[in-house]
Amino acid sequence: MKLTIKRVPTVVSNYQEDAGERPRGGCGRNCLGHCCLPVSELPVYAFKANPTKLLLQEDAVPTDFFINLLLGQWEDRMTQGLFRYDVTACETKVIPGNLGFVAQLNEGRHLKKRPTEFRVDRVLQPFDSAKFNFTKVGQEEVLFQFENSGSDDSYFLRSAAVSVADRAPNVVAINVSPIEYGHVLLIPRVLDHVPQRIDQESFLLALHMAAEAASPYFRLGYNSLGAFATINHLHFQVLYFRLHFSLLFTEPPSCIAVSIIVCGQQYYWTVFTCIL
């Protein structure tokens, strides 16, 4: 039997669409660049400054609120047809054996994923604003900002002005070429034009997101250039995967497995992979 996936109408982003009505303000593309973002309003999820603090207040955000919010917003973008294909229609199975490897037939990611715009001969490369980056993404692909609440409580605002006075905002946006249900991107300091290079601040931000999710099915990872990262703009991969990973001996967030992989053909690339 030939395996196929369901095709859905696609809008890549406002940045790449020339037809249709344009919003007012900025460059008219309603993008995440300096031209539009500072004059925009977006939802905000504010995470706890101290993730180990117990929730004592009756009006505190429920522990499953973050997951439900993320998946609900992801499904809304799917309804809008913003993905390049329907990943939920892809055939997926667990390969027999004690390692529990998962196989997926994802034709859309192979045929419709954005091509790499740089030479993959170095792990660290300078940011190039001429190439595609996340400041060129349309705001319709953004789920919410992800910021520190500065307190022991989390909260969510449906709409708030984007503040760039003190620091560039962190945003969560859909991956338009998903590999699994709920696949999104955590983009730290989107306006700072940081290349795909993990640092202490961005890694801590990713840990805060894992702590907010507090789910064994919440997966958060990082892949460098040379490890199938196609955009040289700092980001983490986030998805919801309801299968047990045998390589994790305890369920997240109580266990954080960090591995360093060296791979390559003509060159040796160092790839940092974080499984939360």
Automatic annotation (TrEMBL):
Which is a Gene Ontology cellular component entry for this protein? cytoplasm
Q: Name one process (GO BP) from the record.
A: glucose metabolic process
InterPro entries xrefs: GDPGP (IPR026506), GDPGP1_N (IPR058866)
> What would you give as a GO molecular function for this chain, any one?
guanyl-nucleotide exchange factor activity
Q: Which residues form a coiled coil?
A: none
| GDPGP1-like N-terminal domain span | 66-238
One Pfam family recorded for the sequence: GDPGP1_N
Protein name, please? Answer: GDPGP1-like N-terminal domain-containing protein
